[in-house]
Structures are given as structure tokens and as C-alpha cells.
Amino acid sequence: MGIRARYGTLAAAKGIALECNIPDKITVTGNQSLLESVFNNLLDNSIAYSDGTKIEIDTVAAPSGKIQIRFRDNGRGVPEIHLPHLFERFYRIDKGRSRAAGGTGLGLAIVKNAVLLHGGTISVENGKEGGLLFLISFPLSQ
Q: Which residues of 84-96 are buried (b: 16+ CB within 10 A; e: fewer)?
């Protein structure tokens, strides 16, 4: 099931437009479940916590043999002090939020480990127009 099919209705219910512009012919070799978890976790977090109105997933220029995917929302972003810690296990920005209200703090650690396991890289920053911007690269299948 594709990103639009899985998350389009959920995003729309929260007033979020979801744009996914990744070419169909791109192939990354690896564990399908782990690769899906990268995007599932990023989408879950963005829909639940960004307070934005738009999520965009697309590709950007990358060195030969790699694909670079840009995942961004136009929400509130996070304070700069938290950015270096976002991929740490059990790290949550809002320490007062209970597990019942907001997860365990494992989602982005899973994302990072899944990307690294597939020979990729991931970074995060606050976007220039707000929100978070994740840049993910993977080696392309030969």
C-alpha cells in the first residue's frame, strides 16, 4: 500500500495536505518492512505533532548511485536545542506527555537505524519556512 493510500485520509482529517512526488521507478534494495517504517514513523510524527497544514515528500539531486529524499512539513518545527537529540532512543521533546498521549520516543531512533542499516544517511533541521526538514539518502539498487 502506498503512502497516499495509507496516510492520505488520516492527513486530510487533520487538515493536512499530503504531497508525495517520488518517481515509481526508484528501487532501493533492502528489508521492505524496515524501509516502510522510515516513512510510516515520519508521517505519524508529522501528522500527530507538527501542527502544520502540508507534508511534502520528494527527491532532490543526489550523487550518482544514490537517491536523496526530502521529507518536510510546514509545522512549528522544534527548538534548536532538541535537534541533535531527535534520533536518540526514548527522547521526547515534551517530557510531560504520557505514553498514552504520545508514544515512547522510539520512532525516530527506528528511522535512523533503518536508514543506516540500508547504507543510507539521515539529517534533520528546522525548515526555512518553518516545520522540520529530513534529508534521507539511500544507495540505489544496481
A: eebbeeeebeeee
